[in-house]
Amino acid sequence: MRARWILVLLLLLAGCSSGPTEDDGRITLRFQSLAWQQESVQVNKELVKEWNATHPDIKVEYVQGSWGSVHDQLLTSFEGGEAPDIIHDASDDLADFAYGGYLADLTDLLPARLKSDIPQRSWETATFGDGIHGVPFLQEPRVIVANATWLKESGVRIPTPERPWSWTEFRRITKELSGAGKYGVAWPLKDPVSATLNLSLSTGGQLFHRGADGKVTVRFEAGDEVMPRTVHDQVTTDRSASPTTLGSGGSDTLPGFFGGKYAMVPLGFSYRQQIVQQAPEGFDWQVLPAPAGADGLTQGVSPQTLSIAEDSPHRREAARFLDFLLRPENMVRLALGDWMLPTGTEALRDPALRTPEHDWATGTALAPHLRSAPAQSVRGYPEWKDKVATPAFQEYYSGAVGLGELRERLEDDGNLVLARYQR
After folding, report:
1. C-alpha span between 90 and 161 (Å, rounded)
2. pLDDT digits (tens, 9 = 90+) for 27-40
3. CB–CB of 283/292 below 8 Å?
4. Three-class SS string for 384-399?
5. DSSP states of 61-120 as a string?
6. Which residues on neighbouring strands pair with residue 61, listed in sequence order?
7. What predicted TM-score, i.e. pTM, was given to this entire model?
């Protein structure tokens, strides 16, 4: 009888497991990827296939996710105990998951090789409290994509990473390039908050200030004003920036860019792929660095990350897969597939990422200037962004409100929102 009860207990325990082990004893890890471009999806699937071919004891199952729904989907899966073992996301989406205990602390799980290959400035994007809750592996600077023919014919100075434009020079040049129904620049600011905060690091902007008690307050200071004031003045005073693109996404501006309506468009580095695919034959374009301020070319980024679910029963095996996926040669493949930059120091040295073709070399030159986005570890940031900052910046850029009202809303209304998350 005792033996029968032991057998029943063992069967019950087996039934309560999350089912990561197959009948043949192999461990199965679910890897949810957010890759969406054809090249990127192909590279991710190839790497999973290569892992499975060389690790018969640990099978990785590729699961396709979506950037548009990842936050809500992950929250549901965490609360339901059905989260994938390995999670692809972005660092600015991790704070609430990390503080909520849903993501494993990777500090003691990752190999020394991987930890030393990625610079500390990148690790800071995925560090919450005392723990590392994601591996930052892909990043992209914001750059200016320019109509090269237009700029050459105008005779303006072409900036380089070594000699970038200042924000003042950038404003002056966009004014020189404008006229006759054409604009020097088109700002696609459907999501104005991320672009504003990240580019404002170049002028010493910080916006979020953490006190000795660990609480964060919003202060809109002189360094935070330069970038948004430049855009505001380009739109409302100089008429050098198109007012119709302020509510547009980056892709929406490309037809007008190709059609000669805008000389320049500030975009993420990965948009080069769309430009290569969509530009008319003979269209000459080039990548320029974003304007520099008192802090040079510094700008904030929220890298793509890979995390491990806290509830995964095979965290060490999942860390082994991450080590494989992010070997330097594989990180280069992932970067090329997404037209982005790897965070790894060794991968960044690869000649394929330093070629002048499609201005890869320009992006690589900007990599040392990338820092953690200002809002990276701020709890309540998504609500602050959606309810306070987005409408405030949109109204300021369009000229509906002035700088004083912008400051008041960001600080007064914003701090009321953040206070609810810091009690």
Report:
1. 26
2. 999 999 999 888 99
3. no
4. HHHHHHHHHHHHHHHC
5. EEEE--GGGHHHHHHHHHHTT---SEEEEEGGG-HHHHHTT-B---TTTS-HHHHHHS-H
6. 30
7. 0.90
